[in-house]
Amino acid sequence: MYNPTMRLLTILEVLQSRSEVSGHELAKKLEVEERSIRRYIMMLRDLGIPIEGERGRHGGYSLQKGFRLPPLMFNKEEITAVMLGLMLARELSVTSLPAIESAAAKIERVLPEELQQSADALRDSLILDNVQIGVSSVPNESITLFSRAVYEGKCLQITYISSDGTLTDRMIAPYGLVLHARTWYVAAYCYLRQDMRVFRLDRVRLISLAARTFTKPENFDAKGFILGSIIKGSGNYTFEVLFDAPISTVREVIPETMAILESSGSKTLMRCYSDDPYWLARYLVRIELPFTVLQSDELRDALRALANDILATIEQ
Question: Residue 249 pLDDT more than 70?
């Protein structure tokens, strides 16, 4: 499985990723005896790699602290993880922006062409929106395939499981990849349904590139389409409320996952969907912004009932 050169490189890779590793672990990984590991360690030391070793039952090998190794090599999945981590750091502002941009630039300068294309695809096709801790687990390979497909205009063949557990095989043309809150979504044209759809990546069971290509509509708003689909799937009633406040103020109290907000001069139009007008009535009263109900009668009735309940408590 390993030739001598590959064994040396494998040992070096393990030492870079671990603070300490035992000779037994290395021997098991490389499928050799521990005395062969000692010989390889000596060869690396002869090459100038400062490897420290501790004898005994609990001893092991480690790289000398502060030693600067040559640039690391990444595969497609690893570069996706690295670049995604930098993008998330930028979104969450966990470190200074200059440091993030500098790190990304250094990595991209030394990437071979194929990995550079994967990095470009991820950067240009992925939209991060209100990302929160605890993102749903999706394989890096899936993220790479979806981002490359969006970037290069290539269709995908997927097996998808719906919310009720139904499995379907579909060919899709992915227009945009969005990580919203904790969930990965893709906005895509579905050839099975012959219409636009939103797919959750954690529900994709199989995925492969198809020979078919597509051209994405100009100025397509993947984030807007996905958020709109999430909101519209929230209930049977359609409500429209006009707030007497600018959109910047309304956005502070109305989350994007709840409603579609549109600026109307100095006012803001909110459109949302729900099965419970009484819940929305209570929510509107609680946020303390002046508003006018444009639609629907169910919401007006719910607000009247709430107002009557409040008046009843005062008159007692």
Answer: yes
How confident is the model at residue 242, as a pLDDT? 96
For the segment 50-106, what is each residue's pLDDT rounded down to a tens digit?
Answer: 888 876 566 688 888 766 555 566 777 777 788 888 787 777 665 556 767 777 777
Q: How far apart are the first and last CA of the chain?
A: 85
> Higher pLDDT residue, 80 or 139?
139
* Kind plus residue range of the DSSP H or E element containing 102: helix 97-109
Q: Are residues 30 and 53 in the same domain?
A: yes
Other Cβ atoms less than 10 A from the Cβ of 150: the count is 25
Q: Which domain holds residue 159?
A: 76-220
In 46-130, DSSP assigns E strands to 51-53, 61-63, 126-129
What is the rounded (10 degree) CA torsion for 162, 168, 169, 175?
-30
pLDDT of residue 213: 97
Are residues 251 and 310 located together in one domain of the fold?
yes
Question: Shortest CA distance to 280 belongs to which of 300, 250, 307, 252?
Answer: 300
Cα of 237 vs its chain's centroid, Å? 31
Give the residues across from 227 on adjacent strands.
none
Q: Are residues 98 and 205 in the same domain?
A: yes
Query: Residue 182's pLDDT band (boundaries 50, 70, 90)?
Result: confident
pLDDT of residue 86: 79
Same structural domain for residues 169 and 216? yes
Structure-block tokens of residue 53: 């070793």
Which CATH number fits the domain that encloses residue 43?
1.10.10.10
Q: Which of 171, 193, 220 is the last residue before a domain boundary?
A: 220
Count the Cβ atoms, other than its own, within 10 Å of residue 70. 7
Into how many domains does the chain fold? 3
Return d(Cα 121, Cα 115) in angstroms, integer. 10
146 pLDDT band, cuts 50/70/90, is: very high
Is 228 within a domain?
Answer: no
One domain for residues 178 and 252: no
Please check whether residue 71 lies inside any domain of the structure. Answer: no
Q: What pLDDT is recorded for position 71?
A: 58
